[in-house]
């Protein structure tokens, strides 16, 4: 059985061709980038045609890289970034550029709605929060949440607002473009915080729609992630180089499937993901919330299960910033090394590998330098769009390698903070699966183990776990088997990292300082960035 999964991230798509029988095998993959357009008003927008062109190019590339024929494809689905906003007309055409999850233009809309009321919790109206918590154990406590993107369009682009037929997330838009059917999957509906998760009441909650003044006519039909949406249309098939009628499944968001691709399918299993963003997630058979730390249980692909999910919005994005501005400049570590040897590219398959080896020469604690990974604000465990990245405690003896290592350590410190916040509400597993592109580096894996004090496991193709989880869901749907059981059978740990207690003292010291840096600088962040 061959399945195509589109792992649709913030800045690129990784299109994966899987073969599934007694094992799951990545037969071929292809990646393509698209833009993320940041504006001074807090906007973070993208282009639907750039998305589609990336899908076209990568899909056709799969068949150049393998012997598989288009007619052998048994199904496809999307595993996509979440909490975006795509407004479409009746033909599923976007009526304005999509708004990425990082978009925070709706600060005024958020404050006007949630900042009202005499009694507040975390700056939000207690009355409105309680209404949300009763319905779905969650609440719109961030200006980046989808409802404020929707309200911003209503308030600032009335002509466009009048053209809206349905309001979708990014994955739902791509499914509609493939099938012609306009739906939302349950996980993407929940991510609006307008969805009722109570047993027997699942669906759009009329009371919340009224409270937030959202037009009910804009809310599409809801299906499960595992449902068959329909067949690939003739037009989409021609564009993608596929066969008309290939089954397209609901799919869903990256947070929905990563635990399945990581093999974390028993209640209490915890995984950490580092891609463009990062998170800590514990699998649960019940729903819970920590409104103060901005952590909630988001829907799993398996009905009745949840991912208790704490997010760091810029994790790998920080390392991308490092590569662009600390390593790839005219005096960069990498370019200096290329002058010494001509075979650097053959020795180091990627700049990430190269820099990982470079920072392994720097002692734990980065010679006293600490970095805060909040380069586009932060959501959890504190919400502040004004928060920013900074290097703390640079002295005359510090160099660029110290700073690069400090960035990786800063990401890990924040992930430890999220893990400790989760532990206040749920039992996390002693052994943690580490997945995403960050898990490709043994240096980072050991660093995460040392900083968290936990045993860290990685799996095969850790950067593809979202796609693997989605492929397992599609395969389970086609075969009629339980996806959690299928995941446990096929996803196994490949490498194990134990914490090195020698490094505990310096990491614990730096971590204590790291946690104080936000409270010590919150007022200054506001002065600089409001």
Feature tags:
alpha+beta, 530 residues, Nucleotidyltransferase, domain 5, 5-stranded mixed β-sheet
Report on the structure:
The protein is of the alpha+beta class and 530 residues long. The chain folds into two domains: 2-250, Nucleotidyltransferase, domain 5, CATH 3.30.420.40; 316-431 and 507-529, Nucleotidyltransferase, domain 5, CATH 3.30.420.40. It is 39% helix and 22% strand. The strands form nine sheets. It has an eight-stranded mixed β-sheet with strand order 20-21-22-19-18-25-26-27, with helices on both faces. Helix 11 (316-327) runs antiparallel to helix 15 (400-423) and helix 15 (400-423) packs across helix 16. It is globular.
How many helical elements? 19
Which residues sit in consecutive blocks of at least 5 with pLDDT less than 50?
339-349
So what's the overall shape?
globular
CATH superfamily of the largest domain: ATPase, nucleotide binding domain
Q: What strand line-up does the widest sheet have?
A: 20-21-22-19-18-25-26-27
Question: Structural class of the secondary structure composition?
Answer: alpha+beta
Query: Roughly how many Å is the radius of gyration?
Result: 22 Å
Q: Give the biggest sheet.
A: 8 strands, mixed
Domain module tally: 2
Mean pLDDT: 91
Q: Which percent range fits the helix content?
A: 25-40%
CATH topology name of the largest domain, in short, is: Nucleotidyltransferase, domain 5
